[in-house]
Amino acid sequence: MLTNRDVAELTAWRKHLHQHPELSNEEERTAAAVVAFLADTAPDKVLTGLGGHGVALVYDSGTDGPTVMIRSELDALPIEELSGAAHASLVPGRSHMCGHDGHTTILAALGRQFGRARPSRGRVVLLFQPAEETGDGAAGVIADPRFAEFAPDLAFSLHNLPGVPFGEVRLKVGVVNCASRGLRIVLEGKTAHSSMPETGTSPMIAVSRIMPALPELGRGRFEDDDFRMVTVTHARMGEAVFGVAPGRAELWASLRTRRNEDMANLCAAAEALAEGIAAEHGLRCIIDYHEIFAASLNAPEAVEHLRRALDNEGIRHTEEALPMRASEDFGLFGQGAPSAMFFLGAGERHPSLHNPDYDFPDDLIPIGARIFMRAARNILG
């Protein structure tokens, strides 16, 4: 159980993390802070540099039993903070506007408790994962050869969720987060003097056709299994000059589906669209993908463990607001073991995730820790 002193120290540490955000794949100091903060809990194994700057702390009973992994994220976002909080980010243009500082602190709270009393059997692994925001982190951790040293039999995670009553939980079996990926289309033609555009090959008309056509590839309601969505997020053409007709354009879009198997079909449709229009206008078309997220699916076995823990703790939980359109790379861990993520209400009027005025509610720290601790103790004793 957390003491009042624990909660005070954890809250202060969360604010320290909030002031010193690091972007995906740059979380070296944040990872070092985790190791230092939990050093006195004497974990049985400490693995650093996992999939980049990831950290895994293992609390082992010394007795045979399952491995339960609980995961949080280390990275922040390239957003200028406007929260006005006394502990606001000290790094211009970077901030913890998704609450990963709070999630990390919840895992630190578990570390304190398992440091005092190991599970009765098996082991608990606290994974502080890098690069969730870019979709690189989970894949990097799993690809690290050392992942085999703590590969879980069950995996759990959480995310805070503004718009849901404070302290309530949203949890369901099946898809909880969509698959998504970033599509980048480059159109290459030939520049010309702006007084003689006919001597070049401009991507202007092709871009003007592709931009509205991409969203038209979407279909279905979000409630439907075959839902798919395309959102144009960025476009650039030529240089910021008056004397040159453009010869190059770049277009970015996010592709989103509820099911992993539908993503390949959506990608093929987007590629055919862009390549067809480019060919009509004599342009070279280059396509690549970024920030690839698999759909997150909650396994029935893992969900049942969380539901039991929530009922034990008297915490209200429903399936409302799920699944979400947003993506989450925790889903990759579910391909190797039963896994589940729950969503912890940050308050109905709390600023939304990724908004510049967002800040993680510190009072969620003991609530999140209680849920995870109860689930782990139910499984491992």
CATH topology of the largest domain: Aminopeptidase
Low-confidence stretches: none
State the CATH architecture of the largest domain. 3-Layer(aba) Sandwich
User: Into which percent range does the helicity of residues fall?
Assistant: 25-40%
Number of structurally distinct domains: 2
For the largest beta-sheet, the strand count, sense and barrel status come to:
8 strands, mixed
Assess the beta-strand content as a share of residues.
25-35%
Which structural class best describes the helix and strand composition?
alpha/beta
Q: Report the total helices.
A: 8
Count of strand segments: 16
Order of helices and strands: HHEEEHEHEEEEEHEEEHEEHEEH
Average per-residue pLDDT, rounded, comes to: 97
Protein name: Amidohydrolase
Task: Describe, in plain words, how this protein is organized in 3D.
This protein is of the alpha/beta class. The chain folds into two domains: 4-176 and 295-380, 3-Layer(aba) Sandwich (Aminopeptidase); 179-293, Alpha-Beta Plaits, CATH 3.30.70. The chain contains eight helices and 16 strands. The chain has helices spanning 4-19, 28-37, 100-116, 137-143, 204-213, 260-280, 300-313, 364-380; strands spanning 45-50, 54-60, 67-73, 123-129, 154-161, 169-170, 174-177, 179-188, 192-193, 228-237, 244-245, 248-257, 284-293, 296-298, 317-318, 339-345. α3 (100-116) crosses α8 (364-380), α5 (204-213) runs antiparallel to α6 (260-280) and α7 packs across α8 (364-380). The mean pLDDT is 97.
